[in-house]
Amino acid sequence: MSEPKYKRILLKLSGEALMGDDAFGINRGTIEWIVREVAAVVALGVEVGVVIGGGNIFRGVALGASGMDRATADYVGMLATIMNALALQDVMRHEGLNVRVQSALNVEPVVEPYIRGKAIRYLEEGKVVVFAAGTGNPFFTTDTAAALRGREIEAEVVLKATKVDGVYTADPKKDTTATRYETVSFDEAISRHLGVMDATALALCRDQRLPIIVFSIFKPGALRRVVMGESEGTLVHN
User: Fold this and answer.
1) How far apart are CA 87 and CA 75, in angstroms?
2) DSSP 15
3) Structural domains of the chain sorted by starting position, each given as residue range(s) with its CATH number in brackets
4) How far apart are CA 129 and CA 159, in angstroms?
5) How many CA atoms lie less than 13 Å away from 78 in the CB half-sphere?
6) CA-wise closest residue to 135 among 186, 177, 180, 75
7) For 25-74, what is each residue's pLDDT tens digit?
8) Over the range 187-200, which residues count as b (16 or more CB within 10 Å of their CB) and which as e?
């Protein structure tokens, strides 16, 4: 069997990806599907770090958050990512994966704090590391956290897992003529507002020469094909 192209990856999961077809919250069947896809690449010997979003939970309180101070709202979102990380950890353990959660916010009775050296050691030991609470700072998205953690753990690539199988010229759900990019440059993604990640995350990955691959986590075997270097999704690079 051929070797994986990428030995260490940073997987970015949106909170919305955990909802399945629900309006908000965590859909158990959906999270089990995602974990099985992750387990398949761990079995190949790939070291996996995960940054998780919190939109699925924060969406449920969004109406009450109307008019909320932006920094306060961002901290609420960070706490939502910790809940998602714990749910992800639980399912991963049920699937037989060795997993650790590290949080950028100090919630030590629940999860351990983010420590770069310890995270790298966990990865080298074959453990999946889930990074919660974004960067720990308001005004920064979990996309930016993915770019930051990806660089810090020396990942070879950031994998942006979505419900769509790549980056398109337009929203394929609204425009039937939209076509998928196989590759696109960081500068083009930023200038054309292609919605790969926010501009801060894209600029950080560009400056650190850290490629991004956008793919559908719900396409069977797509994550495995990505790490094996097969044609899947859209590659964003320098």
Assistant:
1) 19
2) G
3) 8-237 (3.40.1160.10)
4) 15
5) 22
6) 75
7) 888 899 999 999 999 999 999 999 999 998 887 654 554 556 778 888 88
8) eebbeeebebbbee
